[in-house]
Predict the structure.
Amino acid sequence: MAPNDQDILAQVDGIISERGLQYGDPSESFLQIAEIWTTLLRAQLAPGQRVSASDVGLLMASLKIVRQANTHKRDNLVDAIGYLTIVSRLEERP
């Protein structure tokens, strides 16, 4: 791993921790967002289908990836990695 890789990963961990202190556990926020998105997308979803907390993280990371593809900005990369880190943590939970 290159030294800059460690820097970006440390930055991501710091941001996730900081936001957790400000807004609470990201898994709770992602679950709340998933509920809202499920309601908003009800007409497009199959009966009984729901948006998951992991879907929220993947979609948010996708937003940052598209932004990065249009204009390089380190913040896009940091945020995308952060969202994917949260998805990884959500999917590791029992």
Q: What stands out?
A: The first helix runs from residue 3 to 23. Residues 3-92 form one domain. The chain is about 80% helix and 0% strand.
